[in-house]
Design brief:
The chain has about 230 residues and is an all-alpha fold. The chain has one domain (about 1-225). It contains twelve helices and no strands.
Amino acid sequence: MLAIIKKELKSYFFTPIGYIFIALFMIVVSFVFYMYTFAQGSLKFEYVVWDSTVVLSFIIPMLTMRMFAEEKKTGTDQLLMTSPKSIINIVLGKFFAATLVTVIGLALLFIYYAILRFFGNVSLVEPLVAMLGFVLLSMAYISFGMFASSITENQVIAAVVSIGFFLIVSFLQNYQGLVEMFSLVQMYQKFPQGIISLKEVVGYISFILLFVLLTIIILQRRKSVK
């Protein structure tokens, strides 16, 4: 799995994708930071993290759209299907590589925390919990984006499907029952308050496992056919 992670990280940072992802993320965060601190005079860094989650719906597909769609279109998925590495290792390797890219972008937010810390007494607990929720939300988005990439050979379609799904689930905050599991944004709301709720953590993990498993099943079936 480590070999897959290294390979995927190289593909992100030996091409513009990883840098564009981080740049777009930091542009949005910088705008949110300005609005909270300079325009409103707030030192609540955790809410800078919260509002920055909006951009994930549009930039996560940049990382996931090419995961399997590109290989299927170019025919290099043949190497994937005949590789001695298991499908599980390949899927998890790609998943964790994309997660690491988001974590790198998130780590850069400490620059803004340091700025706030310089000007006032800023709590660290709430921002750290908000960042934990941010990582879980990002992983949930990555798992679906990876699934979308596995069902098509067109990167643009994979990206559009992912963005559409993320926007739809953003409006599921007032629904109960099974559909509540897909209300990813609603599950995030307690994290900026410094609250780690077992219900929300389990919800994110369940969502992640569901779409990682679906991706594995799709690739396993494709491998068995070939």
